[in-house]
Amino acid sequence: MTIEMQYDLKAVCWEKLADLFEKAPLGKRDPHRLRKVFENSRYCCFLYDRNKIIGAARALSDGYDCAVICDVVVLPEYQNQHLGSRMIRYLLQHVADHNKVILYAAPGKEEFYQRFSFRRMTTAMAVFKDRKKAEKMGVIEKT
Q1: Where does the pLDDT of residue 1 fall: very low under 50, low under 70, confident under 90, or very high at 90 and above?
Q2: Domains, the chain, ordered by start
Q3: Residue 60: in which H helix or E strand, if any?
Q4: 113-143 burial, b for 16+ CB within 10 Å, e for fewer?
Q5: Nearest CA to 87 among 6, 1, 25, 2?
Q6: Are strands 100-103 and 66-74 parallel, antiparallel or unpaired?
Q7: Is 134 a residue whose pLDDT tops 90?
């Protein structure tokens, strides 16, 4: 098995990426919206096993002070093979000179990110379009 990391958005099949998110399981994603969020991100990477997309990640950045890593996803059958780590290291290399790098983690995945020096923030807050869903997922406190 040869896993290749690519950075070209033109090669991405957005429907297959949306399917990857659903299988991960990180929820249903609209392929058109996925395309927009990746196009609007400063750094992106995609993992392929031959021509099959098996992982993706992205980072938003202002280029100096703050970066945000989001949407780190790997197909379940490829997890625990250091592929998520590979993408995190790639993104962290590109934002290494920033004053802060923030990461949004799925509940239960915090320990994975702690390996890269991420620590829980005590003052982080968020507004979600679907607040009830975010509460149900455990990413925000219930009101």
Answers
A1: low
A2: 3-137 (3.40.630.30)
A3: strand 52-61
A4: beeeebeeeeeeeeeeeeeeebeeeeebeee
A5: 6
A6: parallel
A7: no
- pLDDT at position 117 over 70: yes
The per-residue pLDDT for range 21-80, each reduced to its tens digit, is: 999 988 899 999 999 999 999 999 999 999 899 999 999 999 999 999 999 999 999 999
Give the Cα separation of 121 and 103 in Å (integer).
10
3-class secondary structure per residue, 76-105: HHHCCCCHHHHHHHHHHHHCCCCCEEEECC
CA atoms within 13 A on the CB side of 94: 21
